[in-house]
Amino acid sequence: MPAISFQSVSKTYSTARGSFQALDGVSFDIEQGEFFGLLGPNGAGKTTLISILAGLVRASAGRVLVQGHDVQQEYQLARRQLGVVPQELVFDPFFTVREALRIQSGYFGVKNNEAWIDELLASLGLADKASANMRQLSGGMKRRVLVAQALVHRPPVIVLDEPTAGVDVELRQTLWQFIARLNREGHTVLLTTHYLEEAEALCSRIAMLKAGKVVALERTSDLLQAASTNVLRFKLDGALPREFEGKARVTGRIVQLPAHDAHEIEQHLAVIRQAGLRVEDVEIRKPDLEDVFLDVMSVGRERVPA
Ligand SMILES: Nc1ncnc2c1ncn2[C@@H]1O[C@H](COP(=O)(O)OP(=O)(O)OP(=O)(O)O)[C@@H](O)[C@H]1O
């Protein structure tokens, strides 16, 4: 039995200007114990899919099973299997951290949960904040509490919707160490993130969504291996030559260009010379997940039939 099964899931939202199809026939399974990444640009439909999974939004067509339970017909059973860390920081400001976790335990009917609550607080670096009021916490601390809340009933399936947006390096490391431990202990993890480095490091398999459709569904290692081209990376001291527009990944002064072979590298450098520009810190590297992502998202480069 898969941990999660998305079966021909479609979603059409009604809007003031008519209707909008956010998901279009999404089908894939996530197996028991997988660390699975769901990637896609803004508006691709990731949060919609997760909201349907969590029973917060109704699919227009298709169905979703969690540990074999239909999220609509067997809502309580399905929800009990899931720990969802939402994207937005929603919390009740009147409770302390420990109270919030106790209330959440009660919501799931879990009694005598203090030992696990203490372990969650310690593992997420919240032990000294247990008695602090939620409204006294920083944004990063609140995010830690959201993670603890999602895990309070020890769900077999953990869903993280952009858990590291706006989170500092230390918390990221704490969070990933803890989630990786839970994954090693057998929990299935579904992660959406815009930090492709994190997805590359953590996820064994990845689905990419584009405009509501699955456009890639593969093991992370296969995605990276299939990307045959190398990348030429350098710092540029002037404006990007027109020849590179639409091809280059540009971050400030850093320019990264696909380069299949030595000849193409030479061509790129010739363009720079002809433009009278200087380059520094030139290197050639293997493609990473961000290169694959940008390639798959460009028109006509889908890796599974749309
Ligand atoms: N309640 C709603 N009513 C109408 N349209 C909606 C609603 N919720 C989402 N949408 C639209 O559906 C599309 C998918 O949104 P969704 O939030 O699922 O994308 P996402 O992949 O999670 O994006 P992001 O990376 O920005 O979080 C978007 O175009 C969005 O505007």
Automatic annotation (TrEMBL):
The keyword Cell membrane applies. SUPFAM superfamilies: P-loop containing nucleoside triphosphate hydrolases. The keyword Cytoplasm does not apply. Keywords: ATP-binding, Cell membrane, Membrane, Nucleotide-binding, Transport. PROSITE patterns: ABC_TRANSPORTER_1, ABC_TRANSPORTER_2. GO terms for molecular function: ATP binding; ATP hydrolysis activity. This is ABC transporter ATP-binding protein. It comes from Ramlibacter ginsenosidimutans. The lineage of its organism: Bacteria, Pseudomonadati, Pseudomonadota, Betaproteobacteria, Burkholderiales. Transmembrane segments: none annotated. Pfam families: ABC_tran. Residues 4-236 form the ABC transporter domain. InterPro entries: AAA+_ATPase (IPR003593), ABC_transporter-like_ATP-bd (IPR003439), ABC_transporter-like_CS (IPR017871), ABC_transporter_ATP-binding (IPR050763), P-loop_NTPase (IPR027417). CDD domains: ABC_DR_subfamily_A (cd03230).
